[in-house]
Design goal:
By secondary structure, this protein is of the alpha/beta class. It folds into 4 domains: about 100 residues, NAD(P)-binding Rossmann-like Domain (Rossmann fold, 3-Layer(aba) Sandwich); about 60 residues; about 110 residues, Tetrapyrrole methylase, N-terminal domain (Cobalt-precorrin-4 Transmethylase, domain 1), CATH 3.40.1010; about 120 residues, Tetrapyrrole methylase, C-terminal domain (Methyltransferase, Cobalt-precorrin-4 Transmethylase, Domain 2), CATH 3.30.950.10. About 35% of the residues lie in helices and about 20% in strands. It has 17 helices and 19 strands. The chain has a 5-stranded parallel beta sheet, with helices on both faces. It has a 5-stranded parallel beta sheet with strand order 10-9-13-8-14, sandwiched between helices. β1, α1 and β2 form a beta-alpha-beta unit. The longest helix is centred in the middle third of the chain and has 18 residues. The radius of gyration is 30 Å and the shape is elongated. The two termini are about 35 Å apart. Bound molecules: S-adenosyl-L-homocysteine. The site of S-adenosyl-L-homocysteine has 23 residues, from α13 and β19.
Length: about 450
Amino acid sequence: MDFFPIFLNIKNQPCLVVGGGTVAVRKAALLLQAGAKLRIVAPQLDKGFELPHGSEYLAERFQPSQLDGMALVIAATDDAAVNEQVSRGAKLRNIPVNVVDNPELCSFIMPAILDRSPLVVAFSTGGASPVLARLMRGKLEALIPQAYGRLADFAARFRDLIKQRIDTPAQRRIFWEDMLDGAVAEKVFAGDEKAAEAMLLAQLEQPQAQARGEVYLVGAGPGDPDLLTFRALRLMQKADVVLYDNLVSKPILEMTRRDAQRIFVGKRRDNHTLPQEEINELLVRLALEGKRVLRLKGGDPFIFGRGGEEIEELAGHHIHFQVVPGITAASGVATYAGIPLTHRDHAQSCVFVTGHLKQGGLDLDWEKLAVPNQTIVVYMGLQGLETLCGKLITHGLSPDTPIAIVQHGTRTTQRVVCGTLGTLPQNPEVAELQAPTLIIVGGVVTLRKKLAWFKPGT
Ligand code: SAH
């Protein structure tokens, strides 16, 4: 960290801007927003220059004596010698100084600012790339709605009260997280601060309600952390305990709260580390202990994920839960493999099936699967590949029908093997593939030749 970030209180403090151009005006306006007592010094003002309301203008050349008594100085002239003089004079007097676009002459630099006062976010690249800092700010602009300023004001009103009433910092944090991230916050956003206040006070009166646990059943998508939803990420940062299995990629797991307890309830084919019933029971037990439990699942929890079973159990115990959809493997993996699941020339419908073998066989409705102009996506299908291809052919699909197997879709270890129903099972590359893999059958597979855009490791 080359610069130490702080937020400075300059209310009613004398601040100086040297310069009479548009940049000077911009800086002056910012200082005024923060309540500075502002003086602008320049022999003359540029044409069209509008003196910011509330500032004092001195029509003089810069002289070091003008620095005396200042709390902060910004030089924004186009005269290098003057800028340097301002910097030297300020440093001699220990006054924080910023010279626009000249990091060497600065004792502080100006961040890109996201203003949701009283919530303010400052971005800096330490002078390396102000444009990058502004781009980052742009990204957060979209993420942090204007209403967050109101929420921060609301929280400030109750800060002392909550401090008196809840004395352990950890419990206070949980209380505030619940308030600022749940129904109370929603009320503030909706402009109903009265209702928000009533809810907050009610929560404070019922300590047992504070300890009520809940479960977040969250879809983590197929592996690339960029494919998480905002809501998934928010809940991942909030949970006290994380239950995950081996479909959840490592980079995603690392995005859960650092001090959260992580429990591996891994599932491998035919080798459930914890039987499903025990996972269901564990969720219930942890929630009843008052924990916020994140059940993180690969893809989408409601697609071949047994998410339904897990929350049925919770509902039976009246435990609060929410479900966050994730990008399911069919969608994420096909996209990263350059295979559109539908296409006007190839497929008007698409079906998702499980290829999990039962007693060595595949229990699927072959008549419905083996139809023209349809894409078939097979989850958990690698072991049953040969049976799958054989059955589709005997039920009427041509042995030339294109098929692809995608290993580790959307991840840096993604690998795609293509062929036809007649040839793929014999392809020696298939034997090298590692779970998870997804199978896609149908004419759309041929589009990959043109559309493959994600090429990890090349
Ligand atoms: N709920 C998950 C699916 C769970 S079943 C979802 O919506 O995606 C597990 C199967 O999903 C795996 O056997 C594999 O077929 C598929 N799968 C999940 N992630 C995958 C990935 N990154 N690449 C390829 N297949 C994946």
